[in-house]
Write a structure and sequence with these properties.
The chain is 39% helix and 26% strand. By secondary structure, the protein is α+β, with helices and mostly antiparallel strands. The chain has a single domain, classed as 2-Layer Sandwich (TATA-Binding Protein), CATH 3.30.310. Strands 3-4-5-6-2-7 form a six-stranded antiparallel beta sheet. A five-stranded antiparallel beta sheet has the order 9-13-12-11-10, with helices on one face. The protein has a two-stranded antiparallel sheet with strand order 1-8.
């Protein structure tokens, strides 16, 4: 039965050419209840399947969106097994969005983000991701009218291309991270960032933090607020339906004694792979604006 399910999954993700292609998000279910009721129900169902809710976020610039961030033993074990920048993969995101008269429940496709972040190491953790994928399906089937539809890219991205993803030649790849700050030690880094997030600021808000067991790795989810934050760039890039609400929040990873972030021209492009260059020019300042906020968090 397990092998049959895996085969069905892989066939579902096949492109017309027969090559496996992946899309960044999955529309899990839809509901006609209020967005607050849907969020409450989704959280209950995710927990029942073994997820840990690491944080919740209601963007102050859009009352029609909620984000629930989750991890699980499988995601943590995968990150601990490979280590390094795969700490970014320890948390997945569920977007709850009221649009077109219904509330859509979507989430980051584990296979897409797993391949993008683990790259050639993905086969080492694939079984963890199959398990997480099935956990999501079970949670979605009791959260509303089940959909199970991949979206976020018309054609999808081939797995080999995803593992070395660039929006175009010369653009950053996964490991072209932005170094935000170097500290004396891992302990000092997390202590200072934790203190800054607890204090808060007008340009940022902590959504979650997760320590990867046995590793000097801790990932933070940060809401990017202020005039140049999410409320400025999201309406310019999140222009299709279903909405890419599960793009949020942005992350900082503390790796040993350094705090790093994925380059905006990688992270945004990976999340919106079909955006035209013309659309990207409308948010040319966004990668730098996000970096400024993340540097503020790390000071």
């Amino acid at each position: 039965m397990k092998n049959l399910l895996i085969s069905i999954i892989l066939l579902t993700m096949m492109g017309s050419s027969g090559t496996k292609k992946l899309k960044p998000y999955i529309l899990g279910a839809e509901s006609h209840e209020s967005i607050v009721a849907v969020e409450t129900n989704v959280i209950k169902n995710l927990k029942a399947q073994g997820f840990t809710v690491t944080g919740r976020y209601a963007p102050p610039w859009d009352a029609n969106r909620r984000i629930v961030c989750v991890t699980s033993p499988q995601l943590l074990n995968a990150a601990a097994k490979v280590g390094g920048l795969t700490g970014f993969a320890a948390v997945l995101r569920v977007g709850i969005t009221r649009e077109n008269g219904v509330v859509n429940i979507s989430y980051t496709n584990p296979f897409y983000w797993g391949n993008a972040y683990y790259r050639d190491d993905y086969p080492k953790v694939e079984n963890y991701y199959i398990h997480v994928y099935n956990m999501f399906i079970r949670a979605m089937k009791v959260s509303g009218t089940y959909k199970g539809r991949f979206f976020g890219s018309k054609e999808g991205i081939e797995i080999d291309d995803l593992r070395e993803y660039q929006y175009m030649f010369g653009m950053p790849e996964f490991d072209d991270v932005v170094e935000l700050k170097e500290y004396d030690s891992f302990a000092q880094a997390v202590s200072k960032i934790d203190a800054k997030l607890q204090k808060g600021g007008k340009n940022f808000k902590k959504v979650y933090s997760v320590k990867i067991p046995g590793k000097n790795l801790k990932v933070y989810g940060i809401a990017v607020l202020g005039d140049n934050g999410e409320k400025l760039f999201m309406p310019k890039i999140d222009i299709s339906s279903p909405k890419h609400t599960a793009f949020l929040p942005y992350e900082i990873l503390v790796k040993d004694n350094k705090a790093v972030m994925l380059h905006g021209r990688f992270r945004i492009a990976l999340s919106f792979p079909d955006l035209t260059m013309g659309t990207f020019t409308k948010i040319m300042s966004a990668p730098g604006d996000i970096e400024d906020v993340m540097e503020e968090v790390c000071q």
